[in-house]
Design a protein that fits this description.
It contains 23 helices and 15 strands. It is an alpha+beta fold. It has two domains: 268 residues, no CATH class; 217 residues, Restriction Endonuclease (3-Layer(aba) Sandwich), CATH 3.40.91.50. A hairpin with a 2-residue loop joins strand 3 and strand 4. The mean pLDDT is 94.
Amino acid sequence: MDERIEIWLVGNTGLRNPNRIQEGFAAYANSPFVGKLHGRENELGFMDFLDEKGIISNEDGKDASGSHARKWRLMFAKNGFIYPQVKKKDGLQEDLGNLDDITPFGRSFLQADTYPAMQECFLRSMSVEQFPMPDGNGYFSPLRWILAIMLELEKRTGSSEFKRIEFALWGHTTNPCYNLNEVVDSILDLRTRRALAPAKRPFDKKEIAKRGENYDKKADNFLDYSDMNMRYLRISGVLQRKGRGLIIVPTKHVLAEKLAKSTASTTPLMEQYVLLCNGAPLPTDNVEVAKALLDDLTKQMRERHILFDISDLPLTTPTEINIARQRLENIMSQTDEIQYANDQRNQWREIADYMTLLIKGGGKLVYDEDNVIEVPKDETPAYLEWTLWRAALAIDHMVNEPYEVRGFKLDSDFMPVSAAGGGKGDLYCEYADFTILTEVTMSTSSRQEAMEGEPVRRHVSDAVLKYNKPVYGMFIAVRIDTNTAETFRHGVWYTKDDVKQRLTIIPLTLAQFQRCFISMFDTNKVKPEYIRDVLLKCEERRDNLEAPEWKQHIDTVVANHR
């Protein structure tokens, strides 16, 4: 295994979050650039289009080459959502489809309206062997190869866990040209030596340098690309986080075994493209495999004493069986989310640290070699909602379920997929005697009031009409624009019947909320009444103060509340 190392890329470093692909593709499908994504003029035009839709941020036109558009195009094509460019040696473009046109599979992807449905689309894409083998003998699927490694690790150690440094050195640097047993031998040798190392970071650096002797690009790629590749592999739904590494999702173990049986293929690339663009088959399309996966899931649920009932569902065809499985997976996911929620009170320091990163506009905090938290700069809106959701779970005492509080989607690791859509509030925290509706934004400019003033008041008004108990609005931003404070100071809203409401909406900076949050835990006064009392004290003087003075009053209340 001394040949030159190549790192395969299942994703793209310029589009590190695969959860954003569907949003960008939906925009593309409704753009004038369908079938027209090649050429500098089209690339720049599509990039401007994405910028206008708020999907990317091309600040001050920094990217004048259209590279953003090329990265999105690459991901659309690699996953079979648009027809990829066919090289002459592989066949004729017209035999596949018009370059950059939306494929039948792309249409299916647009209709995937749940997170599991979106994951299944990515799983079908990643199951296709379209990565060239280094020896020129066929193509391979990185996902299938990684699953084969992890199943062999499980066979030898009892766990499919694939640690970050192991993936960096022996995961995305290998392929089916390598001997599977020798790769796993190298991983376990690395694991044993690392466990004995007194300091992990110097050890890792030395190992990367050693492996990098056979790699002709910068050594930073080992870890940088591994983080991106693992994130893309997880979008398949078959893998999830374990620390900073990967583990096979327990409910998908049977599927992982089926996928790993074949990692490479000598089928011509044109035939693979046809599969890709029409929606590649999965083992679960077979009735026996679908039934085996369902049986395994019901067994796991019974072992965990999770109640379920699918007696009303037919189980004749693969589609019917998979629908039943998805219902059970949803029940299990909700059960896991409740357990996750119950643990948040023990994670309050990490939650507060996420707030610090958000106040800075994103970034990373490394606790040790195996524990790190990060807020990607282009995903701060989603992470702000998620962090405040976790804060609400840590405070606890809600009468609604964790998944009823939030409007945004989570992945299987309970990380944010995207920010909540419009039309309703961000977080609905219902308690026995009152409800707190939390609205958040990363906007700090004078546009803040224009974007948030109307919808926040409307959402709070709707909540007042819905709940037969007091409703308090809490608006949280990194910085509160004075015009926003003025709008909420008045808090006036008229219902459809022209009934005038005086709403309680208190604008807090994230730093102010963080101070309250930490104070609750430091003083052992962790209860929602603490937050409610802060909101009521802030409200007391809103009629007697102008907006700038009211903001100062709010700051004083937060600083002095105990």
